[in-house]
Amino acid sequence: MAAEAVHRVAVLALDGVAPLDLAIPLQVFRPREETPYEVTLCGVTEQIAATTGFALLANGGMAEVRAADTVIVPGYDPPLREMPASVLDVLAEALDRGRRVVSICTGTFALAAAGLLDGRHATTHWQYIDDLEREFPAVRVDRDVLYVDEGEVLTSAGVCCGIDLCLHIVRRDLGAATANQLARGLVAAPHRDGGQSQFVPAPVATSGDASLAGTRAWALERVGEPLTVPMLARHAGMSERSFMRRFVEETGTTPLQWLVGARLGVARELLETTDHSVDQVARDCGLGTAANLRLHFRRALDTTPTAYRRAFTR
């Protein structure tokens, strides 16, 4: 995305909208000097009822949705209900015109009702995943993911996964450096993933001293150094076998796959913000050689470091 072009985001709030689901895209895509986004809260009618008993006033309607470059449908309750024809039509029209259509949490049901998810992978809040699979058998439902990116159609799992998805969109549009900057402002993880660019495994929460968050933070501070599973296990004070099992439970991926993802994140930011050679970037991010960096870039991002730098250096 060109930094100079205004990118219009329409957040289409339906009656019964979940306030947190709604707030996420409004916060992430609010106007900033470093981003091109312009966001509008839209509704079928001017007044929108929220799940928590208060009403919202939309400053845009279906016309603003039709004019948007990205349309986002936050979660709403109950999700299994008949959608207004105007909503189904405007969502279908947006995709037909090549616009990006996004859902957060149970907003997936509106996209499914409009036929946008037929034959596509999608996800939603875990409490409603069976309903989605039963009511929309043409949708390829992915259960244990934070979000799914199908190009111009993106869906997220429950509530806070909307932050992950919105930051992913910023990363797609503007690069890792800008997404990381926004994540720091939100005090959010810049990229919770399992090393795959499209399907992102959901971490399984643990509590107390069992969490390996401290070891992951320790590793991130040393991502440019040689790191091995025995080193990580020693830092965590666990046997390698127990460490491997717990790591997969918490992150949905293996330690080595997680390290590759973390190193690619560092490489992306270095490519965007420095003029270091590809060899230097490979060394600094811990991937060693330019050839190894190119290999992982091709596997994860389907591009090369040089092409990535050209796309995201402004």
UniProtKB/TrEMBL annotation:
It holds the Pfam family HTH_18. Residues 213-311 form the HTH araC/xylS-type domain. The keyword DNA-binding applies. Keywords: DNA-binding, Transcription, Transcription regulation. It comes from the Bacteria. InterPro entries: Class_I_gatase-like, DJ-1/PfpI, Homeodomain-like_sf, HTH_AraC, HTH_AraC-typ_CS, INH-QAR. CDD domains: GATase1_AraC_1. One of its GO terms (molecular function) is sequence-specific DNA binding. PANTHER family: ARAC-FAMILY TRANSCRIPTIONAL REGULATOR (PTHR43130), HTH-TYPE TRANSCRIPTIONAL REGULATOR RV1931C (PTHR43130:SF3). This is Transcriptional regulator GlxA family, contains an amidase domain and an AraC-type DNA-binding HTH domain. It comes from Actinacidiphila guanduensis.
